[in-house]
User: Fold these one by one.
Assistant:
Number 1:
Amino acid sequence: MEQQEIMQEAVREIRKMYIDTNKSERCSALKTAIAAIERQIPKKVIDDTEFGMCPYCHGEFNSELVSEYNVKYCLHCGQALDWSKLI
Ligand SMILES: [Zn+2]
C-alpha cells in the first residue's frame, strides 16, 4: 500500500472513532489528528490564479518558481501539494 493510501485509511479509521465517541475533548483530539494527517496527503494546487493557490489555506503563490521547483509543501500552512495538471 502506498504511503498516501495508508494515510487516507488512517483518516477513515479515525473518523469512525470520531463518530463513535461523545466526549468532546476526545472529538477535539481526533479532529486535530485528522487535520494533521490530511495536511500530509498531497492535494492539487488550485490553478485559477496566476501562479496557483493552496487548496487548504487558499494562500496565493506569487512566483512561477514555486511550481518550477516542484515545492512540495505550502509556504503558508504546510499543506502537501500536488502540482500535476488537471486533465
Ligand atoms: Zn496553504
Number 2:
Amino acid sequence: MKKPALSQILPILITTYGDRPWRRRLEPAGELVQTILSQNTSDANSGRAYDSLMKKFGTWDNIAKADISEITDAIRSGGLADAKARYIRSALSALKAENHGFDLEFLRKYSVKEARAWLTRLPGVGMKTASCVLLFSLGMPAFPVDTHVYRVARRLQLIDNRLSVEEAHIELERIVRAEDVYRCHMLIIEHGRKTCRARYPLCNQCTLAALCPSCNSTSR
Ligand code: SF4
C-alpha cells in the first residue's frame, strides 16, 4: 500500500476526535515542571503532584532553594518522586542563574532548533521535555514525540521505521505545517490511546484503516 500523506490523515483525525486548536496550558517554567512530573505516570497523578508542589512552595524561587526531601514529599503522588525532585530543583536552579530567570518568553525570538538547544542545556531536560515547553506554552512548532506519537507515526509510515525518537522530532517538524503541529500532536496521541494502541490496535474500528500500511498486520 502507498504511504498516506499527512494531508489525508489529519482531516480524518479531526473528524474522528474533533479539532484541537492551540491553547496555552501553563507558562513556560510551569510547563517545564509539569512535563518532568508527567514522565512515566498518568496525567491525573502528575496533575496532583503539580498542584501539591505549588501549594507547598508557591513560587519557582522557593522550589529552587528547597531541600530535595521537601520537594520529594510534595510530589510523591506523581511517582519516581526522588528522581523528579532532583530534576526539578536542578532545572529551576539553572534557570534562576540565567539572565532571564524563570521568564522564558524570550525563547519565542529563536527558531525551534535554537530554543530547544537552549532548553536542553538545563539538567534533566531532554528533547521531548524541551519540545513540550515550546509547543504547549509558547505555541512554537516543536513536535514532542512520546511513545504514542512514535508508534502511530511509524505504523502509518509518516516517518521511517529506522529513525530514532530524537530524529522523529525533526522529521515530524519537517513534514507537518507549522500551524498544524499542535493539533497533529494532540490528535495522534489521542488516536494512539484510543485506537492505535500499543497492544492489540483496534484496526477494525479505525477510521484510518483504508490508508494505513500496517492495518491488521500488527498484533501488539
Ligand atoms: S489501521 Fe491499525 S495500525 Fe493502522 S492506524 Fe489504525 S489502528 Fe493503527
Number 3:
Amino acid sequence: MAATAPVGGKTVTVRVNGTTYEREVEARRLLIHFLRDDLDLTGSHVGCDTGNCGACSVLYDGTLVKSCMLLAVQADGASIETVEGLAEGDELNDLQQAFGAHHALQCGYCTPGMLMSATALLREKPHPTEDEIRKGIQGNICRCTGYVNIVEAIKSVGA
Ligand code: FES
Ligand code: FES
C-alpha cells in the first residue's frame, strides 16, 4: 500500500551538509524537528523552541538562522549546514578542536549552536575582535561556561 502523506503535507527537497533529502512533511513541522526527527541529524538541539537560546542554530544558504523559527517547508530548495557537517571525515575541524583545547564547553548543550554561530562569524570575519565574537554569539545562551572560554576558542581560530 502506498505511504500516506501527512495531513497538509508537502514534498520538500533540501540539501543538508551536501546530501539531498526529499521528504513529505506536515506544513506546520519546524525545521529543527525535521532535521532531528525526520533526518536523524540530532546534533542541533532544542533548548527553548521560542528563538531565544540558539541551541538549534544552523546555516540556511550560508545565513545563520534558528531552526526552531523556520518551517521545514521554508527550507524547500535550500542548502542547510548543521554541526554534523563541520568535521572533515573523522577529523574535527579547527573550530571544534579549539573548543576542546580551550575548555569551551561543559554540558555541551549549547555547543552545536555556538559552533554554527562561530562558523558564520569566521566566514564573514576571519579575524574577529573580541567584541565581534561576543556579538557573533549573542544569540546563543550558555548556562555553564560564562562565555570566556568560548570567546577564547573562537579567537584562537581567527588568530
Ligand atoms: S530551540 Fe531554537 S532558539 Fe532555542
Ligand atoms: S556548555 Fe552547558 S549550556 Fe553551554
